[in-house]
Amino acid sequence: MSIFAKDWSAPDPISESAREKMNSLLLTGRLHRYQGGTRYVSQAEEEMARYLGVRYCLGLNSGGASLFLALKLAGVSEGTPVLTNSYTLAPVPGAIRHAGGVPVLVDCSSTSFQLDLASLREQQKTTGAKHLLLCYMRGKLPDVDAVIDFCEETGVTLIEDCAHVMGSFWRGKPLGTFGTFGCYSTQTNKLINSGEGGFLATNSEELMSKAIIHSGSYGHFHQHSSRPDDTTLLLSQHEVCPNFSLRMTNMAAVLILDQIPNLPNKIELFNKHYTILETQLGKHPHFEFPARQPEEAYVGTSFQFRLNIPDYESLCEYQRKSVERGVKLAWFGGKNVNGFTSTHKHWRYVPTSELSQTDTLLDNLFDLPLYHTMTWDEEDFIMIANILCEE
Q1: How many other β-carbons are positioned within 10 Å of the β-carbon of residue 328?
Q2: pLDDT band at 184, cuts 50/70/90?
Q3: I want to staple 83 with a disulfide (CB 3.0 to 4.6 A). Which of 14, 132, 225, 367 is the partner?
């Protein structure tokens, strides 16, 4: 019986050039972005804005901070209903609660793994919600055109959670640039690894001016290079925008700047590995997963499938045996929280209505993280697929 021996949790090493820059930074002690010296965070904001094709990017201390700030700037306050995916991870409803809002969970399709548009319309009509925090959960996309049409028809503000889709496109346009804000993460288990970190992207001068002040720039906002030119606009926001202390550090920015140029190569390798799993598992009737859509250019940093096994105990056994053979397989249908895979059933702080499609989806949904597999060989993924099929 074959055992897969590589470490799924081990990130790729930080490059020598980044280590040298980090060491130089540590010798100066100037880790705070406004402490003088090289403005690494400002450079990272400029590079990320260029990569995403937006006017402005703001570096923050996490992707969750980006979600929170986007919601506050979009007008979410105490008691505001906010539509969002019911199949998502805890930081999404957590950010809504942090901003004072009330998560309104939208049913998710057991075939597309994304928002059910009929449920989206029904929940908006029932609650009157004027905000949608759209999570591109594990890189799966809804019909983006239909979601945009819905937002325009109903006057709903769209905020895109792009933690899992940095580098992905819809009809040639980067995800995160369709709504008012795009929110990105550079936490270790993401396309860019800075330990913790995130970016808020927008084309709005006014909103970015507010965001910079909210992030905790004090009177140092003039040091930002990815910002509106109108200093009086920033000064006026300083008087009315509370300081939330959400700043990115220079250390995170050094790591980000080093990794941005290699993203195309990284994405190519991820997608090659994703395709192997898609091809191998697609040959067997026990595995169900949505086909990639022709409108999208995706980034295959994780792989999800539903397993055609009917009972809970057999699903438990499948996961246990796969893990014993070295395949780090997470399961969304477990009764208890395990690792990152909690679900709406574990969030007592979130009002829950009937979510029949989502529950059907989650019962037998498995998740294979691929963020730290870029340097693995193609034979590794054939072996992984074989183990999953054998078990």
Answers
A1: 18
A2: very high
A3: 132
Look up the pTM and report it.
Answer: 0.96
Strand order in the sheet with 56-60: 56-60, 198-202, 181-185, 157-161, 131-135, 81-85, 102-106
Residues pairing with 199 in the sheet: 59, 184
How far apart, in whole angstroms, are the C-alpha atoms of residue 35 and residue 37? 7
Cα dihedral 146, 152, 153, 159, rounded to 10, equals 70
| DSSP designation for 29 | T
175 touches 160 (CB < 8 A): yes
User: Encoding tokens for residue 248?
Assistant: 């990115």
| Residues 348, 353, 358: CA angle, nearest 5 degrees | 90
- Say whether pLDDT at 89 is over 90: yes
| Strands, sheet with 169-170, edge to edge from the N-terminal-most edge strand | 173-174, 169-170, 296-297
pLDDT tops 90 at residue 338: no
* Residue 268: exposure state from Cβ atoms within 10 A (0-12, 13-18, ≥19): exposed
pLDDT value of residue 238: 86
